[in-house]
Every structure is written in structure tokens, then in C-alpha cells.
């Protein structure tokens, strides 16, 4: 299976004056909703869709509760979740207070099987969303998309 990507020119956030560099940007091709996921799981098991939704909802609720309790939550091969604190440094241990804490993120550590899936992943270049939109507009206007591609110069944005 291949992961679609486009390429975008981006600034270095640590050095705003540095020249932009090209970076890969993953391109999603949709979303799997809770409804769709629950239908898939129900079709693969003996559990009905309503029960799947109930279990998934309770799982998320319990994940959040456990994280608030300071626990790391281990979902086996899916991976582990834990809270990570973002804080400003203080000169000394005595100078550090809760005022230095700026926020909290959820840290995700993928399970071993999930890490191994990424090892064999192939990458497929595709047009950026901006380029796809421009081609669609051109087609709707009756323009030749091939001519659009030949005359269009890459900009500072997505290419």
C-alpha cells in the first residue's frame, strides 16, 4: 500500500530568514467515521453496530479518565497513550512553579506491529490539493488541463 504525498515549500520556523525548503506533506483521501468504523467492525464480528459504537465510546471515555488520573493507557499492538506536560524552563528547581506549565499534550507511542507496518510503506507523489482544485476549475471552464500544467509556474506554496 502506498501513502500519497505532495510537496510544499515551507519556511524554517526556527529561522524565518532562511530560504524555504521543499517538504513532503501526507495527502489524506478521506475519513473513516465512527459510523463507518462501527459498520466495518460489526460486519467482521458477531457484535451489532450499536454495541460496537457503545464499546468504542466507553473506550474513549475510559482512556480520557485514565489519562486524567495520570495513567499510561496501553492498547496492545495499537500503542500507548500518556500525557506530556509542556513547560517553560526555570533557572533552578526552587524557581519552578506550576506557572511554568504551559499546557498538556497526549503523547502516542505506536505498538510494535504498527511500527513495522510503516517500515514497508511505499510513497506515491500526487498533486497538492491546490493543484487539484485548479485542474478541476480549469476542466469546468472547458480549458485543457494539460495546457494549464505547461504554463503554470510553481509558486511559494504547494507544488
Automatic annotation (TrEMBL):
Keywords linked to the UniProt accession: DNA-binding
Xref: Pfam families: HU-HIG
InterPro entries: HU-HIG, HU_DNA-bd_put, IHF-like_DNA-bd_dom_sf
Organism this protein belongs to: Phocaeicola sartorii
Domain HU: from-to ranges: 1-124
Matching NCBIfam families: HU_rel
GO MF terms held by the record: DNA binding
Protein name: DNA-binding protein
Superkingdom of origin organism: Bacteria
Protein's UniProt keywords contain Hydrolase: no
Amino acid at each position: 500500500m502506498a501513502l500519497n504525498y505532495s510537496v510544499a515549500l515551507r519556511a524554517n520556523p526556527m529561522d524565518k530568514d532562511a530560504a524555504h525548503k521543499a517538504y513532503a506533506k501526507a495527502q489524506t483521501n478521506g475519513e473513516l467515521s465512527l459510523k463507518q468504523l462501527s459498520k466495518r467492525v460489526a460486519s467482521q464480528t458477531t457484535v451489532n453496530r450499536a454495541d460496537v459504537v457503545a464499546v468504542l465510546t466507553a473506550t474513549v471515555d475510559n482512556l480520557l479518565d485514565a489519562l486524567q488520573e495520570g495513567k499510561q493507557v496501553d492498547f496492545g499492538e495499537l500503542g500507548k497513550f500518556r500525557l506530556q506536560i509542556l513547560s517553560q524552563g526555570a533557572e533552578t528547581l526552587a524557581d519552578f512553579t506550576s506557572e511554568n506549565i504551559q499546557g498538556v499534550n497526549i503523547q502516542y507511542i505506536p505498538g510494535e506491529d504498527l511500527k513495522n507496518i510503516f517500515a514497508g510503506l511505499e510513497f506515491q507523489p500526487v498533486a497538492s490539493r491546490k493543484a487539484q482544485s485548479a485542474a478541476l476549475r480549469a476542466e469546468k471552464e472547458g480549458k485543457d488541463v494539460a495546457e494549464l500544467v505547461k504554463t503554470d509556474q510553481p509558486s511559494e506554496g504547494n507544488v
